[in-house]
Amino acid sequence: MLARATALLFLGLGMASCGTKEPGPEETVPRLDVLRERAWMLGVDARQRFLVFTSQTASGTYAQALPAGWVTRISEPAEGVRFAQDGSSVLLWSPVSGEQTRTWWIWRPGTGAGVAFTSRASGDMVHDRSLTYAAFTESEAGTTSLRVMDTATCTAEACPLRTLLQVPGNTLLLQGGGTAVLATDATQGWLIDVPSGAVTPLGPIAGPTTLSSDGTRYSLFDGAGHLQVFDTATRTLVWERPWMEDVSLKDWKVSSALMTDAKVMVVNVYQPPPPGSIPLVRETLKCDAEACQAVPGGAGACWWGLDRTDAVHCNRTVRCGPYGCEYQDVYYDASMRLLSNTGYRGSFSRQPAFNADLTQHLWLDRGTSSDTLTWNRPEGSRQLALQGRVETNLCAFLPGGERVAFAQALTRSDGVSETRLWAWDGETVTNLLPLENAPTSPFVVRDSPTALYVNVAAPDHTNIIRIGL
Fold first, then answer.
1. Which of 97, 211, 395, 459 is spaced 20 to 30 Å from 360 by Cα?
2. CB-CB neighbours of 419 under 10 Å
3. Rounded to two decimals, what is the model's pTM?
4. Concatenated DSSP letters for 342-403?
C-alpha cells in the first residue's frame, strides 16, 4: 500500500505561521454584495438568474432577478423550494399547518405569482428532476388519494389535478423516480406510470419497497424472505437473493431499504428482540445479483447521504462511558465503495464536505480550543490546524474541487471578534474578506462565475449576501 503524504499548516488569530497570502494582482479579488436585508435565502437557480427568499419585514416569499433586478412576490411564506434542473420552474411548500397539512405552489419565472395547487397535502411529495409533475397525497374521511399536478397544464389561475389512486386509511407512502411513482400502504403496493396514469397493483408486500432514482428498477421482499429486483417497464424479475441465507441471519427482519444509483440494494436489518423489548442487534447489508454482504460500520443505520442518491451515510454508536460516547460516521458511494470513515466523541458531528464527483472530502475535527481541517484526495491528505472555531455553516469545496472555502470565528489583537472567510488549495491559505456577521445555513455554491450565496445573522435579523470569487 502506498503511503499517503500528509502536510500540516497552522492558522490562527487572523494570520498563519506559514502559507498565508492576500489575493495577488492576477487573481480575482473577492467581492461581497448584500443582495437583501432582513430576508432569508431559500435558494438560487443553477445559472444564477434569480434568488428565492422569504422576507422578514413583509409576509411572503419572493423571487429576485440577479444581481439586483425585478422583485416579485410568488407565494405565502414558504419553508423550502426545489428548482427544476433548467430553472424553468420552482416548487415551493409551506410549513406544516395545525391540521398537519401543507400548501404547495408551482412558480415559473416570468409568470407573476406562483399557483397554489393544493392546501391539503399530507405525507410525501415526489417529482422528477425537471419538475414536469408533482405527485402527493391528500386524506379525507378515512380515504387517502394520490394526486398529480402536471406543470404544463397550469395556468396563471390554477393547476388541474389528476387523481390516480384512492385507498382506505390515512397513510400512503410515495417514492418517485423519473416518471414512475411507487406507492405503498401497510400491506399493498402500486406502481404508477405518471404520463399515462396507469396504475399496476403489486399485491401484498412483505417488507419495505424501493424505487431507483431514475425509475427503471423497483424492489420487493417476498413472503419467503427473498429480495427481488424488477424492471419497471416490463415488471420482469432482474435478480433475486435469499438474503438471510447469504449472511446467515435466519429469522432476522428488515427495517428499511434503499436502492442506490448503481442499483445496489442497501438493507438495514435487525434481530427480533423478546416481546416488549427494543431491537439491540442490527446489521446493514449490501445486495446485488451476486450476493448479499454485511456493510462495515453499518449497524442497521444507513440511509441517503449528502442529500444525494449516489451517496450512503451510516452512523453508529461505538461505545459509551462515564465521559460520553464515541461515534463512527461512514460514507459510501453508489457502488458501496468506502469514501470516508471518521470517529468522533461527544455531541459535535460535522457532516464532511465532498466535491462534486465524491473523489475528495473535507473533514472538520473539533478539539478543546482549536479545529483541524483534513482534506482527503486521491494523491494524499493535507491538514490545516486552526486556532479559533471554523463556522460549520460555511465550509465547502469551490467549483472544480481545487479549493475549499471556510469561515472562521476569530478574536483580533485589539480584542474585537470577527468572522473571516478563507480559501485553501491544500498548500496556501488565502485571506479573502471579513464577514460582518456569522453565516447561517443554508449556503449555496455556484459556478460560471464562482460565487457563494450565504445567509448571515445580524442581531435581530438575517441578510443575504453574495461573495464573488
1. 211
2. 20
3. 0.89
4. EEEESS---PPEE-TTSS-EEEEEE-SSEEEEEEEETTEEEEEEEEBEEEEEEEEEPTTSS-
Cell 435469499, residue? 242
Q: Is the peptide bond before 434 cis (omega within 30 degrees of 0)?
A: no
**Degrees to nearest 5, angle at CA 438 with 405 and 391:** 45
Name the residue with cell 389512486.
Answer: 165
Between strands 210-211 and 198-204, the pairing is unpaired
How many CA atoms lie within 13 Å of 407's alpha carbon, on the beta-carbon side?
22
Strands 308-321 and 324-333: antiparallel
What average pLDDT does the segment 271-276 reach? 92
12-59 tens-digit pLDDT: 433 333 355 666 555 668 999 999 999 999 999 999 999 999 999 989
- Strand order of the β-sheet with 404-411 is 20-21, 429-435, 417-424, 404-411, 389-397
Q: Can you list the pairs that 282-289 forms with residues at least 24 positions away whose Cβ atoms lie under 8 Å?
A: 282/255, 283/247, 283/249, 283/252, 284/314, 285/243, 285/246, 285/247, 286/336, 287/227, 287/241, 287/243, 287/246, 288/239, 288/241, 288/263, 288/264, 289/229, 289/238, 289/239, 289/241
Give just the sign of the alpha carbon dihedral 221, 223, 226, 229.
negative
Q: Which three cell numbers stand for residue 419?
A: 468572522
Cis upstream peptide for 273 (omega within 30°) = no
Q: How far is CA 87 from CA 156, 282, 317, in A?
A: 18, 42, 41
| Identity of the residue numbered 422 | W
> What's the grid cell of residue 315?
452512523
Residue 77 is which amino acid?
A: P
What span, in angstroms and rounded, lies between the C-alpha atoms of 64 and 80? 16
| Nearest partner of 469 among 402, 401, 423, 420, judged by Cα | 423
Taking CA atoms, 58 is separated from 39, 40, 61, 433, in Å, by: 9, 12, 9, 31
Among 342, 340, 244, smallest CA distance to 285 is for: 244
| Kind of pairing between the strands at 115-127 and 133-140 | antiparallel
Amino acid at 86: D
| C-alpha span between 41 and 63 (Å, rounded) | 10
Give the DSSP H/E element, type plus range, for residue 237.
strand 237-241
Nearest to 87 by CA among 134, 127, 131: 131
> Position 260: which residue type?
T
pLDDT digits (tens, 9 = 90+) for 403-419: 999 999 888 888 888 89
Q: Which residues of 136-154 are buried (b: 16+ CB within 10 A; e: fewer)?
A: bbbbeeeebbbbbbbbeeb
CA pair distance 204, 399, nearest whole angstrom: 47
What one-character DSSP code corresponds to residue 244? H
